């Protein structure tokens, strides 16, 4: 994909391709890349099993309309996230 000034880039999942485990153990998610509304290329997002677990947890929270927890010790969190609550309390 060549660099075009002010090009609008959109990334979306290929709906017809399932998420799959590769021989190296990574999880692959096939993506379509479009530039200015025109298909440009395919790509695959490769996640380690740990990264896929975090994404899974965050998707579950998002689908439940809750704030996703960071699965990172507070000491290693970015300064802006230290001391923040892990999720919202429900009434």
Give a quick summary of the entry.
The chain is 16% helix and 29% strand. It is an alpha+beta fold and 91 residues long. A hairpin with a 5-residue loop joins strand 2 and strand 3.
3D architecture notes:
The chain has 91 residues and is an alpha+beta fold. It has one helix at 49-63; strands spanning 9-13, 20-21, 27-35, 38-47. Strands 1, 2, 3 and 4 form a four-stranded antiparallel sheet that branches.
Measured distance between first and last alpha carbons: 48 Å
What is the helical fraction, as a range of percent? 10-25%
Name the average pLDDT: 78
Shape: extended
Order of helices and strands: EEEEH
Number of helices: 1
Largest sheet: 4 strands, antiparallel
Structural class per helix/strand content? alpha+beta
* Total beta strand runs: 4
Poorly predicted spans: 84-91
Describe the structure using short key phrases.
4-stranded antiparallel sheet
Helix and strand topology:
Elements (H helix, E strand, L loop, with lengths): L8 E5 L6 E2 L5 E9 L2 E10 L1 H15 L28
Antiparallel strand pairs: 1-3, 2-3, 3-4
